[in-house]
């Protein structure tokens, strides 16, 4: 009696097995299913790194376009240069930021652009204009940022002149008043900025500083002839 052939599972060629494993691994990375804890952590790290790089590339691209083509930004950069405080591209740094800010100015480090906080290029333009006005004030008027009246004046001017308080921006923030909305926005945002100053210990102190310099600083449109 002849022996019957024993059955066995067919063996996949190595190249098919490798292709399947590559497909399975790619699907797991895409869905997050079937990954070990360490693989999940690595997946999240790579996603975060990819987002950081994408945000940075977009921020840098918008920055170059604004420095070259925005009438507002080129005007401010030119006046900073005329005042002896030229701002090269390297002084405008794109970085990720906390949720409650879009930019910042430091006399020692230049201007921060929060790469992950801009709704669009126009938002970035307004933010950059705001910070360049601070830079202009620091250059021309030797602002003492620890002096709340000095700080309040520059915040009033920056909010007033940069486009930060235009009507469409206020609507997005949930403010709909038509009567003197611009002035209300400038004052509100100046108070919030002064309140973040380490030398300010209360909302009342911030409001007092803004009120004390309001008339002279709100009407000061330098280097513009009028509100942009």
UniProtKB/TrEMBL annotation:
It is found in: Mitochondrion inner membrane. It is an enzyme of class 3 (hydrolase). It is a peripheral membrane protein. GO terms for biological process: mitochondrial protein processing; mitochondrial proton-transporting ATP synthase complex assembly. It holds the Pfam family Peptidase_M76. GO terms for cellular component: mitochondrial inner membrane. Keywords: Hydrolase, Membrane, Metal-binding, Metalloprotease, Mitochondrion, Mitochondrion inner membrane, Protease. GO terms for molecular function: metal ion binding; metalloendopeptidase activity. Its EC number is 3.4.24.-. Has a dual role in the assembly of mitochondrial ATPase. Belongs to the peptidase M76 family. PANTHER family: MITOCHONDRIAL INNER MEMBRANE PROTEASE, MITOCHONDRIAL INNER MEMBRANE PROTEASE ATP23 HOMOLOG. This is Mitochondrial inner membrane protease ATP23.
């Amino acid at each position: 009696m002849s022996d019957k052939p024993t059955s066995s599972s067919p063996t996949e060629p190595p190249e098919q097995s490798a292709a399947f494993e590559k497909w399975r691994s790619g699907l797991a990375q895409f869905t997050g299913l079937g990954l070990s804890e360490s693989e999940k952590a690595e997946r999240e790290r790579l996603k975060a790194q990819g987002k950081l790089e994408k945000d940075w590339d977009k921020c840098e691209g918008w920055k170059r376009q604004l420095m070259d083509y925005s009438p507002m930004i080129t005007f401010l950069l030119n006046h900073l240069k005329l005042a002896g405080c030229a701002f090269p591209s390297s002084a405008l740094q794109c970085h990720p930021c906390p949720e409650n800010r879009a930019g910042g100015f430091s006399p020692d480090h230049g201007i921060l652009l929060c790469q992950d906080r801009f709704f669009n290029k126009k938002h970035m333009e307004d933010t950059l204009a705001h910070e360049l006005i601070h830079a202009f004030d620091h250059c021309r008027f030797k602002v003492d940022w620890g002096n709340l009246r000095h700080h309040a004046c520059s915040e009033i001017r920056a909010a007033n002149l940069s486009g930060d308080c235009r009507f469409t921006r206020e609507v997005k923030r949930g403010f709909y008043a038509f009567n003197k909305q611009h002035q209300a926005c400038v004052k509100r945002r100046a108070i919030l900025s002064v309140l973040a100053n380490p030398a300010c210990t209360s909302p009342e102190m911030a409001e007092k500083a803004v009120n004390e310099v309001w008339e002279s600083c709100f009407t000061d449109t330098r280097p513009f002839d009028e509100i942009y």
